[in-house]
Amino acid sequence: MKTYSRKSTIQKVLSYIRRYWLLMFCSLAFAAITVVLTLYLPILTGNAVDLMLEKGKVNFAALKELLIRMAVIIIFTGIAQWLMNIANNRMTYLVVRDIRKDAFHKIQKLPLSYLDRHPTGDLVSRMIADADQFADGLLMGFTQAFSGILTILGTLAFMLRINIWITLVVVLVTPLSFFAAAFIAKRTHIMFRRQSEIRGEQTGLVEEMIGNQKIVQAYGYERRAMERFDEINGRLQKIALQATFFSSITNPTTRFVNNLVYAGVGMAGAFFAMSGMLSVGQLSCFLSYANQYTKPFNEISGVITELQNALTCAGRIFELMEEEPESPDADSAEWIGRAEGNILFDHVSFSYTEKKPLIQDLHLKVTTGQRVAIVGPTGCGKTTLINLMMRFYDVTKGAIRMDGRDIRDLKRENLRGQYGMVLQETWLKEGTILDNILFGRKDATREEAIEAAKLSHAHSFIKRLPKGYDTLICENGENLSQGQRQLLCIARVILCKPEILILDEATSSIDTRTELQIQSAFQKLMEGHTSFIVAHRLSTIQNADVILVMKDGKILEKGRHEELLEKKGFYEELYMSQFAVPSLKKI
User: Fold this and answer.
1) How far apart are CA 89 and CA 97, in angstroms?
2) What domains sit in the chain, N to C, each tagged with a CATH number?
3) For 349-376, how does the pLDDT look when each residue is reduced to its tens digit (9 = 90+)?
4) pTM of the model as a whole
């Protein structure tokens, strides 16, 4: 994975900010107005001081005019600052919205191999927590850093108008503050990056434990889960304290330098006032400027911590966005109509890692309408074959052909649209029962969805729900049983009416009686259509036209149920292990 440096992260952030250059311009313009009006106020204050010469010698008429002018300036300063904050907020959250949108869009294009290698919780942390941290830092940066820099430059300009020598004292001491802040910031960047990484690890653990709480409690894993959480939480606490401690040194350091500046201005100003080169009002004005000049350094040093964290979080998001996407469809990729259902595995080889081959030189021809069952021990490559057919992964060698065409020469969307797929792991989206069934075919009517539910034997339990087909289900159907969820997924694929059907342990969570009924529905659905059935329960595949017996990525045996039993080979061992006394042969 590409690691983003601070420089490249800033460049990437600026590329997003440029889209909203008008808001940025308004922000800078209102910041400039705020700074100019704020810095003009001490001049009026100094003039007011000079109007009060001594007891009985106060020019009240001129003083009244100055006070009115000061009040108007204060009102306009408040309005300009309010408008600046509106522009900052809008720009910040538009930028974060775009980054989140691009990151989510990128996740849709990432290959499954990337998602298999990275914890879901870490990806969620990048999309949610890191984006929020980045928004907070960016908002503080525009609100305080920009106006602070303008305040520093404006203050210097106003001070130069009054007295160049006292201004020189300020300029000579100022670099100490910059050096201190830069020195500390450089060293805290690594700590904040590590903090974000551990936070992602923590989010991953929490997501994993909450999503599987029943398993955690069933196996008494609570104590070990707490130990793992405490260990990660301890590391997060340690690195967060270190990052915050070292970054917080910046503010006291700059305050110390700022106090030196103020003391230097006071001493030099008093000398010039006693020499008659400055009036008392000008001295008070200079001291006010010295205070305003040093204030942004305190604010900026406080912002540095947030900016460091923000840049680190942005870097993690951009790392995700820069990942290599799924290889695009070839320019010559075709879009075909309904497939006939002829599938050819043409000497296919595949491995998830180079050092560990899985499928080697697999050659298999499946004709239209055939029902192909795939059996074998766990890890033999059954589901991998399905992944290759759907192009979730591409073959390492050889080719898979659909109706004579290499599937890599077809549009992925078109290819996957030819399949109807029911997996052991169900997925339901938040919405109504009807919405989840219509997910299979958006243009279907309510009546067609109900008919599909009847064929899948889901209709009876749906009618018992409070609002029937309009009952809302929560994320992933957590308020339904596993069997009910699987019935809905079966209804969805029945509604889809695919040319090629893939059943990967499709009835594993359903009772035997319902399973027999669904098998009957599947038989009707599979008539004239190519079907691939992955199953551990061999009773569900006895009527298949051909059974592939796999082991270690290879097809050991191939034939009908009766033929394979007569061969007295590996299939018979699998069958006997389920329906008779286990064979003594080693599986």
Assistant:
1) 12
2) 94-321 (1.20.1560.10), 337-418+546-587 (3.40.50.300)
3) 888 877 777 888 888 888 888 888 888 8
4) 0.65
